[in-house]
Amino acid sequence: GFSRQMVEILNKHSIAFSSFDIFSDEEVRQGLKSFSNWPTYPQLYVAGELIGGLDIVKELEASGELDTICPKAQKLEDRLKSLINKAPVMLFMKGSKQVAKCGFSKQIIEIMNNTGVDYETFDILEDEEVRQGLKSFSNWPTYPQLYVKGELVGGLDIVKELKESGELLPVLKGEN
């Protein structure tokens, strides 16, 4: 119940957090009590520093200090915009430049590598929130997805068409 209340408070304030199940590791469960000199759970840490347990978090919430102490979760749309603009040419795919994890991703990597244009990749298999969110955000239901200067170019079929028409390099360089 106390852990559930703590999670509810953190979520209510859009605080970015991760958790560790102390029941999954008895050594950590006992060791953290000694380490923190705090005998009960849950324990909230910010930037490696113990803030306290549920009572402290409730007091911080009541005083308005909780919002100043804890980092806010980045909204998905802001996170997607940030990722899309991480590099001038961004490719969202299954796998990475080094190891494509599907046939479509492998094909687009081969095309991209032959252009000589520098690009970054994001492995959508590593982040389900981005994987699903980007489909809605871009209104493009499949992967890979190629972005140039923050704008969606398209998927593998579009990239193939641009390559065949000789337009791919100017598009990647942001010339049109």
From TrEMBL:
Q: Which InterPro entries match?
A: Glutaredoxin, GRX_PICOT-like, Monothiol_GRX-rel, Thioredoxin-like_sf
Q: Which UniProt keywords apply?
A: Iron, Iron-sulfur, Metal-binding
Stored Pfam families: Glutaredoxin (PF00462)
Key word Iron-sulfur present? yes
* Name of protein: GLRX3 protein
Name any Gene Ontology BP term.
intracellular iron ion homeostasis
Give GO MF terms, alphabetically. iron-sulfur cluster binding; metal ion binding
Glutaredoxin domain: which residues? 1-51, 89-153
Give the originating organism: Myiagra hebetior
A GO cellular component entry from the record: cytosol
Q: Which residues form a coiled coil?
A: none
User: Which Gene3D superfamilies does UniProt cross-reference here?
Assistant: Glutaredoxin
